[in-house]
Every structure is written in C-alpha cells, then in structure tokens.
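DM between two lab members

TW: hey, do you still have the Alanine racemase entry open?
JB: yeah, one sec
JB: this one, 382 aa:
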Amino acid sequence: MLESYSRAWIEIDHDAIGHNLDQVQKLVGKTKIMAIVKANAYGHGDIAVAKACQAWGVDFFGVSSVDEALRLRQAGIQENILILGYTPEEHWHYLYEQNITQSLCSYAYACKLNAYAKAHNVIIHAHCKVDTGMNRTGILYQPQEKHLDDIIQAYHLDHIQVDGIFSHFPVSDDLGEDAATFTKRQIALFNEVIDQLKEHGIDPGLTHLQNSYGILNYQDLGYDYCRPGLLPLGLTSDDQIPIASQPDFIPILSLYANVSVVKWIQPGMSVSYGRHFIATKPTKVATMSIGYADGLPRLVSNQGLEVLVHGQRCPLIGNICMDQCMIDVTNVEDVQEGDTVCLIGYQGNEHVTMDAITRKAHTINNELASTLGARVPRLKKR
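TW: and the structure you got?
JB:
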C-alpha cells in the first residue's frame, strides 16, 4: 500500500488515546482496562492503537481471533492477550507457543482443549466465559438454567489453567427500565457465580464484565478489568444514545479524500448510476476519490449527507460508486482538483462526525469503523 495523504486516507490522533483512557479510568475507579483491539481496532489500526494503549499502561488486550493475537505478538506486544472468540483446533498450538489466553466458549470446548493440551503435555491458559443472558457463547448461568457444575469442572481441568472469568452485556446501552433490570440481573448472576466458586474453594481469578456501555452506564462495579473497545478511540456506538455519565472523549479518526474533477452541469443533466439526482439549476459538481470500496456506505446515497470543502458543508449527490462519489459545491469558491474533502473530522470551523454517516446508513459506529476499506491508509495525524 502507498501510504500517502492523497486520494483517500485516514488520519489517527494517537495522542488522544491516552486522554480517552484517562476518561475511562475516571469512570471505573480502580478497575483496570483491558483494551479491545479486535477487527483492526475497529478499523483504526490495531498495532498503532495497541502500542498507544501500552504506552499509557494497558497490560491486557482483547481480540476476536488467533490471527489478531498473532499480529500483536509479531509487533512486539508481550502483554496478556485474551481471544474472546472461537479458535479452531488446527490453531491451538499457537495458544501455548505464543502465551495467548483462550476464552472457553462452552464446557464441551473446554474439554476438547484440555484433551489436546494433555496429549501435547502443555498447559493452556484460559478465561471461563459465563453466559448470563447474551446467549451467544459461554457456559449457561441464567435463572432458567444454571450449569454451575460445568463452570466448576472447567476450573478443575488438569491441563487448562483458568486465570479468569467473564460475561457480556447485550443491553447495557439502554437506560430503559426493562433493559436496566436485565443488566442488573446479569450483574447479580455473575456475582453469584463468583461467590459459588469461592464457596467451593476455587479462586475465580481475574473478573471482567463491562463492555463500553457497561462502563458508561454502570461505571465502577469493582471487577478486576473492564473491556472498552470504542471508548479509547473516542467513540460510542451512536452519540445520540443517552448515557449515565459525561466523559470528555476525543474521536481519534478523521477521514479525507481528494477532489479529482470539478465541472458545471445544466438543468436536466443527471449524476451517477440510476440518475437519482437530476439538476434543476446550474450546479457545480466535484468528484471525490472515495467510494463504497473505501468504506463509505452506498446506503447513504441521496440522503443529504454533508462533507466539508474549504470548511463549508456540501451535500453528496447521486449514488455513491465503488471508488468515487459526487458532491454539490455550487456555493464554494475556487474548488479545484487536488483539494481536500473532509468526511469525518474538522475543517475550518466546521465538524462532521462518523455518527452522521452511521445514522444515515442505519447502523452503528462499531460497524462503520470496522468496515473502512483496507486500501485506505491509516496515517498519523498531521
């Protein structure tokens, strides 16, 4: 990849990560931070983000898969790494070779992993996932069905060293009564499991439960770690979702593209595939060198999304193409080929957010950031 501030590019303010981690720490008190850098740190660049977190003092990282863990190890990250998702048997050798901690997504999975470790005469480190209500992975522990024996037996496997226990919130982002009741029930169930383990003479190890909204809305629950993903990046899933705290986050990502062509079109002339924009008056159109293959969702076409040119707001017009899209710059003087367009970030006195794109795409920042194109370089903020 040619890494240059041209065509389409992302600028990352790595210095702001420390500020954002400070904001998280204020919310959770003495609880430590496990930085979740899965999916290329939500599209922000996993290695650079992890190293900025490391410099701040983060000593535990969470990823989704073994290949993500190996990327961190190959980049010199020697801190603890927890794989939150599934690792297939063919890759189990990396767990002990690279000192990577595996989540136990079920008791059956834990038993298979233990048999493998025993056959290879090794110890594999793990955290026990408890399913308190997400019903995705983990050993069931819900009011309707409590598999406490399986959790206890997981700790007794002779070639698995269970160093911690965790669960996950599905509705901690919702302050409504039903969601809050459900989340508080999850907290009670998780605490109940921890107490039961202790009553059976088992050290549960490191405890962690809170995702980003669990941090924002439930703050200091007293566990060993919390697991923010978007928060160190200065984002929430949507800045219009109400939260029960007032952190001062700084978004670290800005997205830019160049103007490639400027032309005037006359009434009756159309723009882009489908002819969804037809000029009703003389219109100055600029083509941007960015499209849906770069992560700008085609779904936001013709919805009035605005970008910044010379610090002025300009609407997208016509369908977004794979590599290009068009904007109306009629009211902006002296626009020319090579000019910089800001799609996310600041330009002049104006500001455009990732959230604005996300809402028009009917999704969340988690998805939009994670799908920013691999061909768009992540560069240091100038």
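TW: got it. The chain has two domains: 14-233, 253-352. The mean pLDDT is 98.
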